[in-house]
Amino acid sequence: MSQSDSFIDEVSEEVRRDRLYGYMRRYGWIAILAVILIVAGASWREYQAANQRAAAQAYGSALLEALDAETPAARAAALADVEAPEGGAAALKALLRAGEQAGAEGADPAAVAETLNSVGSLQAADIYGQIATYKALTREGASAEERRIGFEQLAQGGPLRLLAQEQLALLDIEAGETDAAIETLRAIVTDSEARQGLRTRAAQLIVALGGTVSPETEAS
Questions:
Q1: What is the C-alpha to C-alpha distance for residues 129 and 120, in angstroms, rounded to an integer?
Q2: Model confidence pLDDT, tens digit, residues 110-167
Q3: Cα(76)–Cα(58) distance, integer angstroms
Q4: Helices (H), 68-157
Q5: How far is residue 176's CA from residue 173's CA, in Å, rounded to a whole number?
Q6: pTM: predicted TM-score of the whole model, two decimal places
Q7: Cβ-based neighbour number of residue 211 at 10 Å
Q8: Which residue in 6, 23, 108, 127 has a CA-CA distance of 20 to 30 Å to 159?
Q9: Using CA of residue 167, residue 173, residue 176, residue 179, what is the dihedral sign?
Q10: Can you give the residue ranges of every domain in the chain?
């Protein structure tokens, strides 16, 4: 390599180095800022998560403290004073409060219904609304027709499907439709999603109604 070529290479390398330093001086702050933002973002997320955990623990403690009251009426009143966040936490409080209202001496059915109906407006998961509907339908005061319509809707799907079917069988028994009740109860017994306790109740009802758990046994 000639001296001129070597000199050109050295100059080119120096130019590249100068350009690199220039870019770093001009744009290096962007990289530094990006690192700072990433670190700050991670710290902020951790801060938010810690606050959420603390809020959840405080809310749970407040619920437990309210449930420590001596009477259902006192527990219902204490629960009403607990400040609940939105969503499922508020729906849970409403369900607990409705249960205490229903168990209080001289319970007011209208007040219980109002508390249960409020669950649907709390922007919580569907399961909370389904539980509230189920509780409302199993309370005294609803007509057989209202209960049947409500339980038929719940029986179409969801976590309370089988419990709703059980209630429909009980409505059939009330109406004197023994065969229909037995058929519904048998479906519960053979359902793979049915828990053992529910299957046992259904089987006992079938026997009490004069049927057999297996239709083949009855036919023979």
A1: 5
A2: 888 888 888 877 777 788 888 888 888 887 667 888 889 999 999 998 888 999 999 9
A3: 19
A4: 72-81, 88-103, 109-118, 126-138, 144-154
A5: 5
A6: 0.61
A7: 20
A8: 108
A9: positive
A10: 68-142, 148-220
